[in-house]
Design brief:
- This protein has 84 residues and is mainly alpha-helical.
- It has one domain.
- Helices cover 75% and strands 0% of the residues.
- It is built from 2 helices and no strands.
- α1 crosses α2.
- The two termini are 42 Å apart.
């Protein structure tokens, strides 16, 4: 897996969200540098878990759609004397 990289704007938005969370929920101020450091740590150490969960969810959605396609093809099948 390649590293997940955020654009400068995305990273700035996430850092602001971390700062807001610390301020509102934990009543602790956190500077921009510390918030970026925390983001990098979480991304590096936990990101793969979220990434893999997204892949599993995408695979499940795709499998459900493929089952729908298989059902649609089966419904198109014409009756013959030939048995599978």
């Amino acid at each position: 897996m390649t590293d997940i990289a955020f654009s400068k704007d995305e990273k700035a938005l996430i850092v602001r969200k971390i700062q807001l969370y610390f301020s509102e929920e934990l009543k602790q101020p956190i500077g921009q540098f510390d918030a970026q450091f925390l983001l990098d740590f979480v991304s590096r150490e936990l990101g793969a878990y979220y990434y893999n969960r997204g892949l599993y969810d995408a695979q499940a959605a795709l499998n459900a759609k493929l089952e729908d396609v298989q059902d649609a093809i089966y419904q198109l099948e014409q009756h013959t004397d030939f048995r599978r």
